[in-house]
Every structure is written in C-alpha cells, then in structure tokens.
Amino acid sequence: MKFFIDTANLAQIEEAQKLGILDGVTTNPSLMAKEGIVGKETVLNHYKAICDIVDGDVSAEVIAVDFDGMVKEGEELASLHPQIVVKIPMIKEGLKAIKYFSEKNIKTNCTLIFSAGQALLAAKAGATYISPFIGRLDDISSSGMHLINEIKEIYNHYKFDTQILAASVRHTMHIIECAKLGVDVMTGPLSAITGLLKHPLTDSGLKTFLEDHKKSNAGN
Length: 220
Ligand code: G3P
Fold this sequence. Notes:
Bound molecules: SN-glycerol-3-phosphate
Strand content: 15-25%
Number of strands: 8
Number of helices: 11
Order of helices and strands: EHEHHEHEHEHEHHEHEHH
C-alpha cells in the first residue's frame, strides 16, 4: 500500500519523506488555507515546493466548479511539475473534466467520494485515483471501511485501472484496515503514520536492552 501524507505543511512533509516510506502528498483547499497559503502565485509555488521534497504524486485541487474553469486550472496545475495530479471534485462538471484529462494522459484524483456509485462513475471517466473519505463517513455513523469494500468489489469485477486512495484517514486503525483490504493508497496525517511505530513493549524492551548493556559494560 502506498502511503501519502495529507497536509500542505512543508515541515511535516519533509519529516515523512525522511522516514523513507512516503509515496506522495495530497492537499486540499482547507489544508492550504490552514498553512496560510493564499494568492495564486503563492499557491502554485507551494505545490512546486512540495514536489521538490517528495518523489511521488502530489494532488493539487482545482477551485473552479465548471468544466471550462476546471480544465483551465487543471492544465495550469499539471504544467507546474510532472508529479502534479489534478484533484477534481465528484460533481457532474468534474466527471467531464476527469474524462477530458484522462484522454490527455493527465493524472487525476477524484475527490469527495462518498458512495460506490460515485466511485463507479469516476473509474468509467478514467480517474487515476478516487478518494473515498472514510473518516467523514465514520463521523456520521456510516462505515468508511464498508464503502472501501464495496468499491473494491466493483473495481475487481471490471479490472478498472483507477486506484483507490483512502482519504480522510484519521488514525492508525484506519491505515491497518485499509491495508487488510488491499487498498492501493492511503492518505493521512503524519500523526497516523508515525502512530504505527508505537508499541509499549518496543519501548520497554529497548529500555531494558540499553540498561543491561550499560551494566555489563560498566568499567570497561
Ligand atoms: O484530503 C481530503 C481528506 O483527506 C480530508 O480529511 O480529515 O478533513 O476529513 P478530513
């Protein structure tokens, strides 16, 4: 499973990259705003800065909600750097834009997927990735993992090339559950990724090893 980090924070992206397990980055307008990235030039430069840190795909979301606007913005984003993936919302105009970019071999990430039907449409339009928001479904007492299961079942039947990018991942168990289902990619915060490192028996075991080493080497 590929690990993407879901942030526009350069320090966190660098930290994840240094771990050696990072495969890409996803951003969205809220994450950009959180980092205070405003104004067209600043935004475009920020995407370039992210691409300079990581080796893999970097999702950059369009703001337009009409076909022409999405195409214009998406082409500009794609021309920034070969790692840019144009992130497009799952709406009617977005579906048309995904088809357009797919025919031009420009990678897309169809975002705000909350149903199997939406995932089916995005795959038929030729999306490179689809982003089902599992955390936001869990937030409203629906099951994010159930949706992932449904999409996997459908995609397996028809051998779509579209990759399932589990988004709105909030914690370690989301990551484990995605891996158990064979999800292609997950995107989550740095805390969820580094949370996988933690085990109290690792910490206590290491403490004992180091204490024993110190004792047996005392005086040497
Ligand atoms: O990038 C989209 C998605 O991952 C958002 O996550 O936590 O705001 O639901 P969240």
